[in-house]
Amino acid sequence: MSAADRGWWTIDVADDAAGEDYAYVLDGGDEIPDHARRGSPGACTHGRDTWTTQAHRWDDASFAGASARRCRSLRAARRDLHRRGTFAAAITHLDHLRDLGVSHRRALPVNSFEGSHGWGYDGVALFAPFSRYGGPAG
Predict the structure, then answer these.
(1) Is residue 4 part of a domain?
(2) How many helices (H) and strands (E) does the chain have?
(3) 3-class DSSP assignment, residue 130
(4) Domain residue limits at 77
(5) Measuring CA to CA, which residue among 30, 34, 6, 10 is closest to residue 21?
(6) Rounded CA gap, 112 and 120, in Å?
(7) Model confidence over 5-52: pLDDT tens digits?
């Protein structure tokens, strides 16, 4: 790795490295996780990480928000919307929620956490969507 500005370190990684696990080793010590990672294999936030590429590009130029005065909000975890608890499964319920009058869906944090059930407030892997929700690809 090479030193960059303001204490950051960088490395160029080949595009075909996506899906490979990695960890940092400083001065021959133990493996440590990358706390700015974008993927965590399984449900482990303290182990090796998975190299991911940012293939998705947000495009919200045509988005028009709803009026806050007419807001009917629902706050729920993915597992509360469907027994599979994935991003894809939750999407299948959006039309039903709209038909019930819900105009805004407030997502709980989606970052990785230890175990199979959590609220996402662990603060460990803030940039890595929980693998069981669908991970970065989901």
Answers:
(1) no
(2) 3, 10
(3) coil
(4) 12-54+71-133
(5) 34
(6) 7
(7) 998 888 888 777 877 888 888 889 998 888 777 777 665 667 778 787
HEC assignment per residue over 56-110? CCCCCCCCCCCCHHHCCEEEECHHHHCCCCCHHHHHCCHHHHHHCCCCEEEECCC
The reply to whether 62 falls in a domain is: no
Which CA distances in Å does 109 have to 84, 97, 105, 121?
17, 20, 13, 7
Domains of the chain: total: 1
Which token pair is 4?
A: 């960059």
What letter represents residue 56's amino acid?
H
Residue 119 lies in a domain: yes
What is the predicted pLDDT for the residue at 117?
67
Distance CA 46, CA 21 (A): 13
Q: pTM, whole model, 2 decimals?
A: 0.62
Under a CB-based contact definition with an 8 Å cutoff, are residues 53 and 18 in contact?
A: yes
pLDDT at 88 over 80: yes
Tell me the two tokens of residue 113.
């956490």
Tokens of 126: 């803030």
* 75 located within any domain: yes
